Amino acid sequence: MVVLLEVEEINTVPNAPLSHQVGLESRSDDRASVRFRAEYATLPAEPTMRKLTVYRHDRNAVGATYVYPVVSRRANGVSIGVNLNPNNACNWRCIYCQVPGLTRGKAPPIDLTVLQAELSTMLRTVVEGSFLASNVAPELRRLNDVALSGNGEPTTSRDLPAVLVCIEDQLAQFGLLGRIKVVLITNGSMTHEPWVQESLRHMARINGEVWFKLDRATGEGLTRVNSVKMSPADHLDRLRGTARIASTFVQTCLFALDGEPPAAAELDAYLAMLASLVEDRVPLRGVLLYGIARQSHQPEAPRLTPLPAPWLEEFAVRIRAVGLPATVSP
Q1: Is residue 19 part of a domain?
Q2: Using an 8 Å Cβ cutoff, are 289 and 213 in contact?
Q3: What's the CATH code of the domain at 93?
């Protein structure tokens, strides 16, 4: 069976073998098994699961510790997630978070051997196998990225620099380095730390992209939505610094709380913050505006409801008027 896999910035060849379509050499089983290090593999050769949709982001979808596939609304395709927080620990507690049993804390030490084997297995089954055809709707069968995300804040992991080396190596093995993105999805709270700065510089060299969380622009709003007490000005400084090192998007989640959208004063403060970044020529790529598509597992869940798509689109128009591109994922 020939499986069509579209990879960003790669021209596919109709009816050609999949390895040719994604620009990979054909490999013998012996070479693949050596590269794959099958003796360490923890995934089946061809993981099977329920169909992937934007409404189901199961971190245990293929029975791995760190690696999981999802269909991403914002990426409009398949993202291979790398979960550096299998302990469900995060230094924030966003009230819309879908992680069950979320606790305050940081990432545990990462077993890099296991991570390498899982990522190699997942890439192999996507690139050389039938995973996409078996598990993804036809219109979404494109591999967009490897994303550092998961069940907590990935930048709390001191192993982040070593994890990026592993990701770079595996992408190179499959001929995908520079052809798909490496995405860091972060709340931005740790981007001033030395190991994160090192990682941002590394990402800039390997087609990396940062999605930096900015849900609210006032201290009260940050406390209400993200359960943190911090200075909005300090958070803005971290965003400035991040965008000047690596390609960066602002990611913002908007929803109704107790049936009401964010207050006008909160939205105005948010737009003023973006305007200050534009005025200072901070090289942001744009804003990823999204709603809640999956059930929160936080105590506030019954109070949260999605905002209508037209509401989000109207706010995106206001963002664009400030001078930044904005995309909407209701």
Answers
A1: no
A2: no
A3: 3.20.20.70
16 falls within a domain: no
Q: 77 falls in which pLDDT band (50, 70, 90)?
A: confident
Asked whether residue 135 is assigned to any structural domain, the reply reads yes
Angle between helices 160-173 and 112-127 (to 10 degrees): 30
Q: Is residue 218 part of a domain?
A: yes
- In which domain, by residue range, is 308 found? 24-329
pLDDT in tens, 108-152: 999 999 999 999 999 999 998 888 888 888 888 889 999 999 899
Interatomic CA distance for residues 97 and 294, integer angstroms: 9
Count of domains in the chain? 1
For residues 202 and 245, the answer to whether their CB atoms sit within 8 Å is: no
Query: Using one digit for the tens of pLDDT, what is the confidence trace for 2-60?
Result: 223 333 332 322 333 323 233 333 333 332 222 323 333 344 444 544 554 444 445 45
CA–CA separation, 162 and 170 (whole Å): 13
**Contact (CB, 8 A) for 177 and 160:** no
171: how many CB neighbours lie within 10 A of its CB?
A: 20
Asked if residues 322 and 271 have their Cβ atoms less than 8 Å apart, the reply is: yes
Q: In this structure, are residues 82 and 147 in contact, taking their beta carbons and an 8 Å threshold? A: yes
d(CA 74, CA 311): 18
